[in-house]
Write a structure and sequence with these properties.
- It is a single chain.
- A five-stranded parallel beta sheet has the order 2-3-1-4-5.
- It is an alpha/beta fold.
- The chain is built from eight helices and five strands; from the N terminus they run βαβαααβαβααβα.
- The chain has helices at 19-29, 37-45, 49-56, 58-72, 92-99, 109-116, 128-142, 156-168; strands spanning 9-12, 34-36, 79-81, 101-106, 147-150.
- The chain has one domain: P-loop containing nucleotide triphosphate hydrolases (Rossmann fold, 3-Layer(aba) Sandwich).
- It is globular, with a radius of gyration of 15 Å.
- Bound molecules: adenosine-5'-triphosphate, (3R,4S,5R)-3,4,5-trihydroxycyclohex-1-ENE-1-carboxylic acid and magnesium ion.
- Magnesium ion (MG) binds at residues 19-20, 36, 38, 81.
Length: 172
């Protein structure tokens, strides 16, 4: 039993899982900086994510993602909403764990489709067949999180409360 915010909270999960929305809710309860990794990458590079993908390719984007995580270490603990692909690089995991407790927002494929709409601003969401393959491929990676939370059974506020309740009851 302890302050659920104390170690920071890092949200992982697929596109549309609600990471950015729930992170903002957590920010109302935890007196910690709230950071969105996608926005941090855009801020550091001065380019949008679609521009990075288009001009430099996915590998360059992944490198920027790892560098952005490293750049946040001196601000830990924090509330961090990650991008859906951050779990793909093994070297990102120890960085995520230094930034906070890693919480997976688990949602179904049907919810992803409903929530991402046209997929605008998400370069990997343009081809729905490849997107579904990516979703299935990533599921076992997300399950490596410290905590798994149902990301579709409630409002963003109730999901944030669920996270805080479960972290509160974790062993110190
Ligand atoms: N619990 C919820 N119930 C209903 N809608 C939600 C919920 N959480 C988020 N949404 C909506 O789903 C959409 C996607 O949410 P959000 O942008 O927070 O996802 P994300 O995980 O950050 O996605 P990405 O990885 O693409 O950044 C938004 O329109 C948001 O308002
Ligand atoms: O799931 C992914 O690989 C991505 C998700 C977005 O949040 C962005 O990080 C980017 O579009 C890649
Ligand atoms: Mg987001």
């Amino acid at each position: 039993m302890s302050n659920p915010c104390k170690n920071g909270i890092v949200l992982i999960g697929f596109m549309g899982a609600g990471k950015s929305t729930v992170a903002a809710e957590l920010g109302h309860s935890c007196r910690l900086p709230v950071i969105d990794l996608d926005q941090e990458i855009e801020r550091r590079s001065g380019r949008t994510i679609p521009e990075i993908f288009e001009h430099s390719g996915e590998e360059a984007f992944r490198q920027s993602e790892t560098e952005a995580l490293r750049g946040l270490l001196d601000q830990a603990p924090l509330i961090l909403a990650t991008g859906g692909g951050v779990t793909g690089r093994a070297e990102n995991w120890p960085l995520l764990r230094r930034l906070g407790r890693v919480v997976y927002l688990r949602v179904s494929w049907e919810t992803v489709l409903l929530r991402i709409g046209s997929g605008q601003g998400r370069p990997l969401a343009r081809d729905r067949v490849r997107l579904q393959a990516l979703f299935e491929q990533r599921l076992p990676l997300y399950e490596e999180a410290d905590l798994v939370i149902d990301g579709e059974g409630g409002t963003p506020a109730s999901i944030a409360r669920d996270i805080l309740r479960k972290l509160y009851w974790e062993k110190a």
